[in-house]
Every structure is written in C-alpha cells, then in structure tokens.
Amino acid sequence: MSHKLFLLPGDGIGPEIMKEVKAIIDWMNANLDVSFETDDGLVGGSAYDAYGVAISEEDMAKAMAADAVIFGAVGGPKWASVPYEARPEAALLRLRKDLGLFANLRPALVYPALADSSSLKKELVEGLDILIVRELTGGVYFGEPKEIVTLEDGQKRAIDTQLYTTSEIERITRVAFDLAKTRSNRVASAEKHNVMKSGLLWKEVVTKLGAKEYPDTPLEHVLADNCAMQLVRRPKQFDVILCDNLFGDILSDVAAMLTGSLGMLPSASLGAPDEKTGKRKAMYEPVHGSAPDIAGKGIANPIAMIASFSMALRYSFEMGKEADMIDKAIATVLEKGLRTGDIAKEGDTVVTTSQMGAAVLEEI
Ligand code: ATP
Ligand code: MG
C-alpha cells in the first residue's frame, strides 16, 4: 500500500531542509518494503508570491487528502507587509483548523552527544526525554468573546475567553495517556485549578478519564507555574506533560530551551481518528521557524526536519522500527562529532545542511 505524503517546504530554510527529508524518502522507497507517494505544494510567502494567498485551495485540498503533511517553515521579512489574511502564518492556522489538528506533540530530547549544549548543568539535562502534549484548537486562543471594546469613559477593555468542554479535554487526555504507554508511562497534567474554572474542569476530566481508562498509568497534577519552575529545576522528573493551548505554548518553549538546540526539535500535530479507517490527519514540522538570517546559505541544521519525518513514520504509519532507525542515525552522527553551525562549539568542524543530511542517510 502506498502512503501519500504532501510536502510543504515553505520559505527561508524550509526548502533546504526539506531536500534532506526527500533524500531519505527516496532511499526508503528504493530500499525498504515501503512506498511513499509524494507531492509538493507552496505555503506561506512562496504561495503568496505565486498565488497571492498563504495557501491555495488546490494545495489545501491536497493536504486534506494526504496521509500526512510534512511542513517546513513559513515567513520572513520579505512578507512583513502583505495583507493580514495572506500573511504566511495564516497558512499554518488554516491547516491546523481545517485538518482538525487538536493535539500538538513536542518532544524535548537531549541527545547524549549534545548534553553540554544546554545552558543548564549537564547532570540536569543528560538523558532528558520529555514529551509535551498541548491542546491546539481550543482554549483562550479561540474562545469567544475575544475583543477590545471602548468603554464610556474612553478606556478600552480587552477580553479573551478561556473555554474548554469536557470532550475537548477528554480527547487530548487520551492522546497523552496513549503516548505515555509507549514511553515511561507517566503523565503530569498542568493547569491552574486554583484560579481558573477551566483548570478545575481540566483537572476533574483528566482525573476521571485517567482512573477509568488508564488505571495503570500514574497521573500527577501540577500547577502550570510550578511546572515551569520544575522544568528548569529538575526536568527529568517528567515523562509526558499534558496541557492546554496557552500553557502548552509556554511550557513547550521552556522545554525546548532545556535542550539548547532549536535546530534539533521536531513536532507533530494530530487530528481525531477517522470513524471508518481509524487514521488521523496529521502534520509534522520542525519547531524552529524559517530562519531568514541563514536562508540560502546551505548551513541550516536539517535534524529537526528529519526528526519530524521520523515522527510521521511513528505516528501516521506505524513504522516505529524505521523511526527508531532514523532517530538512532541522528544520534550516531552527532556522536561522531558532526555539527552544523547552530550546535557547533569552538573547535568543532562545521558541516553544511547537505553534508549533515547525507551523513544521517549514510548512517540509516
Ligand atoms: P518564527 O517566528 O517562525 O518562530 P523565529 O523568529 O522565532 O521564527 P527562527 O526562524 O526559528 O525564529 O530562528 C531563530 C534563530 O535560530 C535564528 O537565528 C535562526 O537562524 C536559528 N535557527 C532556527 N532554525 C535553525 C536551523 N534549523 N538551523 C540553524 N539555525 C536555526
Ligand atoms: Mg518563534
């Protein structure tokens, strides 16, 4: 059976790092008993230049029909003044919304060879392997009312609404517990039930569902502010951290910085399982942006992008073995001392994007 991948390289370093993933896909098609069918589209500024929109309807339809979307990065100074609806980031929001990608998975993994890249002490982060599971389509980012109103006395008042329903909390909770079972089997749920009604409901729903459906997975509740502190103080206490949209945004950036290397971090965004096929819509992308400052120079680190493809194998295609193979190849290449500029220390030999990609493929 052939798997449909829709590739959206995007802007800046996006196309450069996507090239390295394409090479891996080609190699897999030629050498393994798998068959990936790929198609390319335009997204972000590159779509704006071609069509005047952040993503065309044709490419949206292809994204909807694909088994997985592999996304590079969008944006850059060139498109700073395009109309608001056509700004590059609008494509990301549209994709998330139309594909129903409610679960955002962000691993924070410290590769053994890079344990001294973090600004934290090596002992604190060595062997770190956390997965943040963030709710992505609800909460204060989308809740209505959301507005700025002018009051009678001339003051303005801004309103954002943090809004969650039981079913929204349940579905993200299941994702977190299911993933925990494939890892160290621990879930920490972060909210602020002490000051927020939504936090109270969150805690209640997670507790009930955890006890009923996942009695063998230890669950801990942690206040989101304390979670941020614990992440910096003693990060290895966590396995899976479950959180809402806003706290997840913040906590996943904290966790990312623990690893000290933005160019290394992948992410996955998953939708609900299809009622008939059980398959989820999904999009995989590096955590970093389009890095306009280094675009076109061939020096970007392709590892976050390659690791995002590995997540696609794991979560969309049940190819855990192949995903392990890629992850291991990345670790080995780092072990051997290969470094792109972003992860290099003084005295390291610095390799280009394509040299790094080729070295990972060679190891695979
Ligand atoms: P966005 O708004 O899209 O998140 P950003 O401005 O937050 O973008 P990035 O585009 O991720 O940030 O870049 C932040 C810094 O990290 C830049 O200096 C960039 O060059 C560097 N960087 C990001 N990704 C990589 C990568 N893959 N390889 C090397 N350096 C990178
Ligand atoms: Mg950013």
Task: Explain what this protein looks like in three dimensions.
Belongs to the isocitrate and isopropylmalate dehydrogenases family. LeuB type 1 subfamily. Residues 4-360 form the Isopropylmalate dehydrogenase-like domain. The protein is α/β, with parallel strands linked by helices and 364 residues long. It contains 12 helices and 12 strands. The protein has helices spanning 14-31, 45-51, 57-65, 88-99, 122-125, 166-181, 197-213, 224-233, 245-259, 303-316, 320-335, 353-363, and strands spanning 3-10, 36-40, 68-73, 103-109, 129-135, 143-150, 156-161, 187-191, 219-223, 240-243, 266-273, 280-286. The strands form 2 sheets. Strands 2-1-3-12-11-4-5-10-8-9 form a 10-stranded mixed sheet, with helices on both faces. It has a two-stranded antiparallel ribbon with strand order 6-7. Helix 11 packs across helix 12 (353-363). The chain starts with a strand and ends with a helix. Bound molecules: adenosine-5'-triphosphate and magnesium ion. Residues 13, 75, 262-263, 288-291, 293-294, 300-301, 304, 340, 342 line the site of adenosine-5'-triphosphate.
